[in-house]
Amino acid sequence: MGSIYLIRHGQASLGAANYDVLSPLGIRQSQLCGEHFKQLGMQFDSAYAGTLQRQVDTGRHALDAMNQANLSIQNDPAFNEYHSDQVVESYLPQVLEAIPEAEHYLKNAGQYRKEFQRVFSHAVTLWITDTHERSDCPSWQSYVDQVAGGLRRVISANSGSGQNVAIFASGGTITAALQLITNMPATSAFELNWQIVNTSVSRLQYRADKLSLASFNSRAHLEIHQQPEWISFR
Considering the entire predicted model, what is its pTM? Predict the structure, then answer.
């Protein structure tokens, strides 16, 4: 069987003008991930990412640390994060009923990280449990289908025996894959989503007719250095 390594991007720039840029910590996390793979003697046969800059740059820094800078990262938008801004905007009126200060926390996310997460989590819960189609926001199931299509393309293109494939993605991508493989409810999948660490590694095993979960949210490459501040969630 081959292995797909789903690697979450490094810490992005929450509260900055452009969130889709790795922070200095995010760059270091990406390098540590690559260094860890190198120490394990790991080499990737192919690498993929969505089209988001934080995903691509995570892959670039990790592969460089593995001495695989020449390995081309193939872009597939199926592995992009779901449109969180669209989700929050669509469900904000309902969020405000529960959290009246929600707009203030959203506008000052860098200053109110914990409060921002509470607002964001509430909007996502409303989204994934909504049984009605909305014209202003694609459903969670449509996003799961999108990720499933991307995984099918990767498996089809890497059908050789024992292939090691890296996909540099986002927390939503990993959550969708988790639900797809385990058939757990979306609410349960998102309970795990909130625990996915920046540059954590989740490994899938695959062959043409089977996809299974081998490990989830491994962060050994960060924990081994005993620097708690290197572990982040956004």
Answer: 0.92
